[in-house]
Amino acid sequence: MADVTLRKVVKRYDDVEAVRGIDLDIADHEFVVLVGPSGCGKSTTLRMIAGLEDISDGDIMIGGDVVNDVPPKDRDIAMVFQNYALYPHMTVAENMSFGLRLKHYPKAEIKTRVAEAARMLDITDLVDRKPKQLSGGQRQRVAMGRAIVRNPKVFLFDEPLSNLDAKLRVQMRIEIKKVHQKVRTTTVYVTHDQVEAMTLADRVVVMNHGRIEQIGTPNELYHKPATRFVASFIGSPAMNFVPCRLEDDAGKLNLRLTDRLAFPVPPQRAARYQAVPRTDKLLLGIRPEHIAESRPHAESGVEPFEATLDVTEPMGMETLVYFTLDGTPLCGRVSPNAGAQDGSPLRLAVDLNNMHLLNEVTGAVL
Amino acid sequence: MSTVTIDKSGPTRKVKYGSMSRDRAWALRWSYFFLVLFAIFSLVPPLYMLITSLKSSAEISAATNPWWVYHPTLSNYVELLTSNQFLRFFWNSAWVSIIVVTITMLISVPAAFALARMKFWGSATLATGVFLTYLIPDSLLFIPLFKMFAVIGDWTGIQLINRWYVLLFIYPTLTVPFCTWIMIGYFASIPKELDEAAIIDGASWFQTLTRIFIPVALPGLIAATIFAFTVSWAQFLYPLVFTTSTDQLVLPVGIITTLIKGDVFNWGQIMTGALLGAAPPLIIYAFLMDYYIAGLTAGATKG
């Protein structure tokens, strides 16, 4: 087991920079998820850690040693691929033991390790089968088994659940988490699914356009996003963004959304925003769960307003309501008993204690 | 008008389904018709050879029904199989084919692996180039090749012309490009992650080839082997040009040059020799048919 460090790592393909100088410290035993839209450089980063791609610039260290020019087989890593990449002509046991056999481990030890990994993954009955006789979920377990038996310094996962159906994906997500809790191997996991990232990770690395947008625990990313990209990428349905500006009103700070609609900024937030130039184009960022039906005796900072609902989506435990505010589409989450109906007006309330204020031009969260 | 259409919609759909299955039935009948036609077309000559091989020379030249054997005899077979000369041709052919297949596989499998997987400067061009060399007909090549071996003989004193083993240098020019091309297509259809997984598991390039690629691409490998064997076994032009002494001849040339004397055609033995010569490839095909078809189609669609 080991820590993994990336220092100003760059990957260039001819003229295109796929990864633009990223710095990342992954601690021993940590489960880090790289997440971002396709083409953001997350898979390239993982493949550079694996040694499957050369790095154009910078340093990659595993366990303190620079591995820039170390071939993959000497990096002591194991990788799980999206399409499993099981050897079709070998049985499950042979697949899992291939790496050990290449390194000439004693037969008895290979057997013990394979049996142990098979038990951990609940595939003991399958060890004599060929990959084509297995279901997608079973194949993914075997692929994980192949990684576990090697007892490597680092596990690398490249979108391992993307080929599975939704139900199996949830199940395998839990399996992966369980395995990590048992073996505690440092893990780097790549996915484009923010739910997977949030549920699995100790820390999430959000990437976009070859750069790291933010590194943090799932809760930090959700509640304190650093940029507009992170704010909109993490969370489903996505955060609402409403153009707005700040106004001074008799010593207090007001947030003006439309000509007719302005809210007082809650005092604990007002101090932070005091220095923002009043002329700046700003965005109010507010998550759907912070727009709910208006209740009597609301706490301070929860401001009511009227909206005409365009569409309602009953989800069972809540109803999603969609409406527009001066042309800006918004989404809110109301109680199923709030009486939300398509096309009808509803009195909603926005909880500004959980607001974010963003610079519209730079995308930075203020 | 519209009401009429609506009224008829139910039955029309039925008729449509019915007609679809009827179309299918007709398609099948036509396919079988043509299959049988082509089967007859390609099986009649060997049948005629078999019939003729069972006749004595007298019966062949007699004006009887050529499609019937009145006095069946195995004398042609006995004569050929006990003739040292024929057995010599047979062994020459066998040696040439086996060694050529071995040489071909030893060259084209690693070559295909390198061209399909190790992306190096010019690898794509080289792969196309390999295929283009296959397109050059042997009738264009045999004179320069002959000249080349003659010059080598003059310069070094190593006489290769009129030796059966000269064919070991020539046949690979036909088999290596084609087999490499088949194997490139086959290797290219193997997912990239498979070799990446092997490399991460600690395999070298050579181990990736021998322990992953060759077993996975076995059908393609067998197809290539069969092809190389068939080409070497059935080559006619090159051995006709390069070998002349009877002890150096391979089967196809041997049969023609020794069994046709002047204008006398020993038809019974020619047919017998040709049938016996066709036997080894036939046996190999029969055993490896499934692999062969799988190999060819995979190479064709994914290559």
Automatic annotation (TrEMBL), chain A:
Please report a single Pfam family linked to this protein: OB_MalK
Bilayer topology term: Peripheral membrane protein
Per the database record, which ranges form the ABC transporter domain?
4-234
Which keywords does the record carry? ATP-binding, Nucleotide-binding, Transport
Tell me which PROSITE patterns the record gives. ABC_TRANSPORTER_1, ABC_TRANSPORTER_2
Q: Which GO terms describe its molecular function?
A: ABC-type transporter activity; ATP binding; ATP hydrolysis activity
Q: Which InterPro entries match?
A: AAA+_ATPase, ABC_transporter-like_ATP-bd, ABC_transporter-like_CS, ABC_transpr_MalK-like, ABC_transpr_MalK/UgpC-like, Mo/tungstate-bd_C_term_dom, NA-bd_OB-fold, OB_MalK-like
One GO CC annotation, please? ATP-binding cassette (ABC) transporter complex, substrate-binding subunit-containing
* Subcellular compartments: Cell inner membrane
What does the record list as GO biological process? carbohydrate transport
The family line of this record is: Belongs to the ABC transporter superfamily.
What this protein is reported to do is described as: Involved in beta-(1-->2)glucan export. Transmembrane domains (TMD) form a pore in the inner membrane and the ATP-binding domain (NBD) is responsible for energy generation.
Tell me what this protein is called. Sugar ABC transporter ATP-binding protein
UniProtKB/TrEMBL annotation, chain B:
What Gene Ontology cellular component terms go with this record? plasma membrane
Respond yes or no to whether keyword Cell membrane is given for this record. Answer: yes
Q: Tell me, which GO biological process terms does this entry list?
A: transmembrane transport
Where in the cell is the protein located? Cell membrane
Entry keyword set: Cell membrane, Membrane, Transmembrane, Transmembrane helix, Transport
Q: Which residues cross the membrane?
A: 30-51, 94-116, 128-152, 164-188, 209-230, 272-294
**Major location (coarse):** membrane
Membrane topology annotation: Multi-pass membrane protein
Transmembrane helix in keyword set = yes
Q: Which residues form the ABC transmembrane type-1 domain?
A: 90-288
Which SUPFAM superfamilies does this one have? MetI-like
Which InterPro entries does this UniProt record tie to the protein? Answer: BP-dep_ABC_trans_perm (IPR050901), MetI-like (IPR000515), MetI-like_sf (IPR035906)
The entry sums up its family as follows:
Belongs to the binding-protein-dependent transport system permease family.
Q: What is the protein's name according to its record? A: ABC transporter permease
Q: Which organism is this entry from?
A: Bradyrhizobium macuxiense
Instruction: List the lineage, top down.
Output: Bacteria, Pseudomonadati, Pseudomonadota, Alphaproteobacteria, Hyphomicrobiales
